[in-house]
Design a protein that fits this description.
Number of strands: 18
Strand content: over 45%
Order of helices and strands: HEEEEEEEEEEEEEEEEEE
Shape: globular
Helix content: under 10%
Oligomer: single chain
Strand order of the largest sheet: 1-2-3-6-7-8-9-10
Largest sheet: 8 strands, antiparallel, barrel
Structural class: mainly beta
Radius of gyration: 24 Å
CATH superfamily of the largest domain: Quinohemoprotein amine dehydrogenase alpha subunit, domain 2
CATH class of the largest domain: Mainly Beta
Number of helices: 1
């Protein structure tokens, strides 16, 4: 009897393998598509951190009539990837990053992952400059840690540590002083609402020299956004970035980007205090 049981188990296992075509089916990959923020901390500069804001896309493969993630990730175009430089010392932001133009000047990300908790390797381009990332995907599919380095021959040489996490949709009410498009400084209450298509609606109520309200809309990429609207009959654009300060207090940083050749800091808003 002691010899018969193992033999029987081996026979059953062999039959199962034969029925499956000789391979044990692998579980489908978890789809990690969504809004991510990656932060690349340079080993060459203690103050600057590069924020890679992405609407991560994951390729799909048809398996037994069902679409499943294939582990190939991409982000291309202004609505899928945005890069900015954050000065950790004073919280200022440079939209577009610090790398000078190289080649085609593209912003993109491409790479692959194989399993939760496993390797997640990709490269991204900042204004045409290529950086290679070797990372590990978190076991929950919501984070990553690793290192990055510029590609050989890159005109923008850098390396350091990189972290990343899935970010929630922008929402809530923020207040503070904001320089409006007519150059006046007003007290502003801004209400954020991001929909399922990653489009932000921003309602602003200003009190002060203008005493007005207006609405702006535009795409959200990670924690960055670009909204457009009309103010006093003229088209206006603002770039913004949602960040957590060192004390883990949220704030939204605004730049008036109406004049693309001369973007100007417009103000930083903080959450509206709760009312009793």
């Amino acid at each position: 009897m002691k010899k018969f049981v193992p033999a029987l188990l081996l026979a059953i296992a062999a039959a199962l393998v034969a029925c499956s075509g000789g391979a044990i089916p692998q579980p489908p990959l978890v789809n990690i598509a969504g809004a991510w923020e990656l932060k690349a901390a340079s080993s060459n500069s203690g103050a600057d951190v590069t924020g890679i804001e992405v609407a991560l896309k994951v390729g799909q493969t048809l398996v037994n009539g069902v679409e499943q993630a294939n582990g190939q990730v991409t982000a291309t175009g202004a609505t899928q990837i945005s890069i900015l430089t954050i000065n950790a010392a004073n919280g200022s932001v440079v939209f577009g990053g610090n790398c000078a133009l190289s080649g085609s000047g593209t912003y993109s990300l491409t790479g692959s992952y194989a399993a939760l908790g496993g390797p997640f390797n990709f490269n991204y381009t900042e204004n045409g400059n290529v950086f290679n990332v070797t990372a590990t995907l978190g076991g929950d599919g919501q984070s990553l840690t690793g290192t990055y380095t510029s590609a050989t021959g890159s005109a923008c040489s850098d390396s350091g540590a990189i972290t990343g996490a899935v970010v929630p949709k922008l929402s809530g009410t923020y207040v503070g002083q904001l320089t409006l498009p007519d150059s006046t400084n007003d007290s502003v209450t801004a209400t954020f609402s991001e929909d399922s298509t990653s489009t932000l609606t921003l309602n602003l109520v200003a009190t002060g020299p203008d005493n007005t309200n207006f609405t702006m809309t535009g795409p959200v990429t990670g924690n960055a956004f670009l909204v457009q609207g009309t103010f006093q009959g003229n088209p206006v654009s603002y770039e913004g970035y949602y960040e957590l300060t060192a004390a883990l207090l949220p704030e939204v940083y605004f730049v008036n980007a109406t004049n693309t050749a001369q973007p100007a800091y417009a103000g930083t808003l903080t959450p509206q205090p709760p009312t009793n």
